[in-house]
Amino acid sequence: MKFIIGIGGMTNGGKTTLTNRLIKALPNCCVVHQDDFFKKPDQIEVGEDGFRQWDVITALDMEAMVNTIKGWQENPAKFARSHGVNLTVDAEASGPESTGMHILIVEGFLLYNYQPLLDVYDQCYYISIPYQECKQRRSTRTYTVPDPPGLFDGHVWPMYLKHRKEMENNCNSIEYLDGMKSKDEIYNQVYQSIQNTLLNSL
Ligand SMILES: Nc1ncnc2c1ncn2[C@@H]1O[C@H](COP(=O)(O)OP(=O)(O)OP(=O)(O)O)[C@@H](O)[C@H]1O
Ligand SMILES: NC(=O)c1ccc[n+]([C@@H]2O[C@H](CO)[C@@H](O)[C@H]2O)c1
């Protein structure tokens, strides 16, 4: 059986923190990080506002991301092996004869704003935090290309608001998580919710 979990959320909401804990706890669990599909800086369009437009879907090679997920769907055991993920004995067999449970976590800030991905998820989560907290956490981070002054208010936040509205119209099966709760609380909530879904699907 195969199961795909979307861990979506705004920048600095805590997606990576949550994902890293889930990977350790869930069996045969692989991960795809959307940030790995950012195009090179010189391919990122500069907007009328003067900022490189990082926080839009065209900043990412979404075709490559979809193909990576397809690769997992076609042969999760092979995908796991090539990504150094340990498998339980029942999940070792490749192809339809495999009896084990394979899990894929897809983690990123624009998971529910790209039509070809919407049907891929078996379960969807979205973590958000208030503006001040988001701005504060972001100010402590350095990305491969550091944020120029004014990027947060001029680009990151307005794009978040736009995408959030779009996403709420696209999907009605997202479980919203309060990123202001403690890391433990968020993890326990999601772990329990995944366990319940997996048990109900058996
Ligand atoms: N529940 C939490 N409470 C307080 N701080 C948190 C919580 N979860 C994560 N953080 C902190 O917030 C920062 C961002 O966390 P993380 O890298 O997990 O976010 P992210 O959503 O993956 O961000 P991005 O997509 O921008 O890389 C880190 O410094 C992390 O330690
Ligand atoms: N990972 C990168 O290459 C990169 C470069 C510049 C900006 N970002 C930011 O990452 C966030 C998503 O995780 C977005 O808010 C981007 O601004 C990422």
Structure commentary:
This protein is α/β, with parallel strands linked by helices. The chain is 41% helix and 15% strand. It has 7 helices and 5 strands, in the order E-H-E-H-H-E-H-E-H-H-E-H. It has a 5-stranded parallel β-sheet with strand order 2-3-1-4-5, with helices on both faces. Helix 1 (15-25) crosses helix 7. The mean pLDDT is 95. Adenosine-5'-triphosphate is lined by residues 9, 11-17, 109, 137, 179, 182-183, 186. InterPro entries: P-loop_NTPase (IPR027417). This is Nicotinamide riboside kinase 2.
Please give the structural blueprint.
Elements: E1 2-9, H1 15-25, E2 29-33, H2 62-74, H3 76-82, E3 102-108, H4 115-118, E4 123-128, H5 131-139, H6 151-170, E5 174-178, H7 183-201
Parallel strand pairs: 1-3, 1-4, 2-3, 4-5
Helix pairs in contact: 1-7, 2-3
The chain binds adenosine-5'-triphosphate and Nicotinamide riboside.
Nicotinamide riboside binds next to loops.
Strand order of the largest sheet: 2-3-1-4-5
Evaluate the radius of gyration. 17 Å
**Number of beta strands:** 5
Average pLDDT taken over every residue: 95
Report the order of strands and helices: EHEHHEHEHHEH
Broad structural category: alpha/beta
- The helical percent reads 40-55%
Family: Belongs to the uridine kinase family. NRK subfamily.
Protein name: Nicotinamide riboside kinase 2
Catalytic activity: beta-nicotinamide D-riboside + ATP = beta-nicotinamide D-ribonucleotide + ADP + H(+); beta-D-ribosylnicotinate + ATP = nicotinate beta-D-ribonucleotide + ADP + H(+)
Keywords: ATP-binding, Kinase, Magnesium, Metal-binding, Nucleotide-binding, Pyridine nucleotide biosynthesis, Transferase
